[in-house]
Amino acid sequence: MYVIEVIPLRKDTRLGQLSYFSKEPYERGAILTIAVRGKRSQGVVTHCESVSLAKAALRSAGFFLRRLPPQKNARFLPETLRTTVAELAEYYATKPGAVLFALLPKEVREGRVSAPEVEAPAGRAEGSARGGAFSYEILETPREERIREYRRIVRTTLAEGKSIVLTVPARADGEFWYAQFSPDFPERVIFLHSGLGARALRSAYARINENRKLLLTIATPRHAFCMQNNVGTLLIERSRSSAYRSRSRPYLDFRHALAVHAEKNGWRCISADTLLRSEDVARAEASDTSRARRKAARAGAVHNAIETIPMKDKTGGAEPFTLFSPTLLDTLKHTRSRGHRSFLFCARQGLAGIVACLDCGTVLRCPRSGSPLSLHRAQREGSEERRLLCRVCGFRRTADDLCPLCGGWRLREWGIGVERVYNELIRYFGRDGIFLFDRERAKTHQKASALIDKFFNTDGAMLLGTPLALSYLREPIHTSAVVSMDSLLATPSWRVQEEALGTLLSLCEHTEGRVLVQMRGEETDVLHTAADGDLASFHSEELRTRERFNYPPYTVFIHLSWRGTGADTQSADITARFKSFGIELYSAPDAEDILRYGLIRIQSTMWPQDALVDALRSLPPSVRISVNPDRII
């Protein structure tokens, strides 16, 4: 008889190792079917010991071990993946089972396909799987140049007898790169994503499991951790994309997880984008690869100039407020008359970002988070209705007709939302050939692809889109415009300068002709950097600012959020528990059910800390823990 310790593959971050007894021994890494709270689940063996050696521990235990049923054809996870999981569990202050649940695709967790067994060959130390030390590099160039560079990297890697993995943040990106490489390498390219059917998944994993043929595997983040033994290079495409950040517990950053996994396997890891995150640049410089960055920064200069259009109109001012300047309208009319396509970028969802009363000045706020409610339009049973939505917690309700405080009827919408711009656009140009691309119209990949196909198949079409639309622009656009640069710069994120510059550069690389930017405030350094392409100076200044104010990558943010009313006991408990770690507490104003926040700053070289990790793991599930989030308010 044997005592088997297993990590359950469950989303529950509170579950640690579970113990069972079995007639058969199982090696570390074996994936078994276990019973957890009356439900069947998958688990990974972490330890196996004979009952005769564990008698003392079993006698002192205050519980009975459940029997583990016999397992047929047990599959195994590679040692490098298990060590990756252990490191990530410490970094994100969670349980290994929750990390494994987040990293593995659904078909592997449920046992519908077999994960490749990627054990290092005998006699070769961990971290030398590709025959050399791990290296971290960066590539900061427009997409057209990345296509050429990727082809060179793929050919070189295959010639060295190694496979290559290209990770993409979303399925749309993967389809673009699959179309680029499949003609050149028809028998070697595989695209793994959650939209594949059961037969296609089994076929793809069967090819990976062969472990003999050299492959180029294009994969979304969760499918990039189950690869064959002969991988030599990992490419992280569009590494600045927020889609790499998990939206559910344990809130992993897949870019960080992929880099850790590459280090455990001894792969060459390359982060690439038109504009990289400044922390990626800092890491590359620390890894003695600054030469690659300087070369990329010079090559990253945009080929088409950005034209700034100052908007002097203001609400209630001498000049009437207008969404479109005469210059932009004339450009759109000219582009449309010649049968060319235009793209208009809008940073905000809905009709307006804020609704306020002109009589008493009340801003309509979310009763849970205290954040301003944005106004949205929705179709329900064939009729249109307006809703108020909170972007922080998802609270929604039907829009008010009267002010909830004074009863006044003069509620005014403030801000520039994509639906408001769409209404104005069809007023000038009519509905024909005008397409709106936002989360309401592109709820699924299929709907988004159908919408973008209609746009590219229509001569003289205009596409109005939010940031979601950028990854679907597979063909060049003749004219692009930012409807309101002020809205883009008002994003409540400490990465706002980097995100704004990245958006401008992305528009430039998708545009053949003019790129127009409407702005009501003063011109910023972001516009100047986008115009001259001096990305090296931008990163240097950004990193100096972050170091001065203790922001990543020099500091690790541990961000906590929970709900409470008044002097609730949970807030008091968190305050007492993390006071020694210098926690900063803050909350939104004017909320009935207050969303509270806590922020702990730790020097990067000091994280993870055992005491703090243990304290964070002991928190109840009602407290959300996020490490280095893009937003802390």
Task: Describe the structure in your own words.
- With 633 residues, the protein is an alpha/beta fold.
- Helix content is 31%, strand content 23%.
- The protein has 19 helices and 27 strands.
- The strands form 6 sheets. Strands 5-2-1-4-3-6 form a 6-stranded mixed beta sheet. Strands 7-12-11-8-10-9 form a 6-stranded parallel beta sheet, sandwiched between helices. The protein has a 6-stranded parallel beta sheet with strand order 13-23-22-14-21-20, with helices on both faces.
- Strand 17 (383-389) and strand 18 form a beta hairpin.
- Helix 9 packs across helix 17.
- The longest helix has 17 residues, at 143-159.
- The radius of gyration is 27 Å and the shape is globular.
Task: Detail the topology: elements first, then pairings.
Blueprint: E1 2-8, E2 18-22, E3 30-36, E4 39-50, H1 55-60, E5 66-67, E6 75-76, H2 79-91, H3 96-103, H4 106-109, E7 135-140, H5 143-159, E8 163-167, H6 171-181, E9 189-192, H7 198-209, E10 216-219, E11 231-237, H8 254-265, E12 268-273, H9 278-286, H10 290-299, E13 306-310, H11 326-337, E14 342-345, E15 354-357, E16 374-380, E17 383-389, E18 396-398, E19 411-414, H12 418-429, E20 434-437, H13 445-456, E21 462-465, E22 479-482, H14 485-489, H15 496-510, E23 515-519, H16 525-532, H17 535-548, E24 555-564, H18 569-578, E25 584-587, E26 594-603, H19 610-617, E27 624-627
Parallel strand pairs: 2-5, 7-12, 8-10, 8-11, 9-10, 11-12, 13-23, 14-21, 14-22, 20-21, 22-23
Antiparallel strand pairs: 1-2, 1-4, 3-4, 3-6, 15-19, 16-17, 17-18, 24-26, 24-27, 25-26
Helix pairs in contact: 2-3, 2-8, 9-17, 15-16
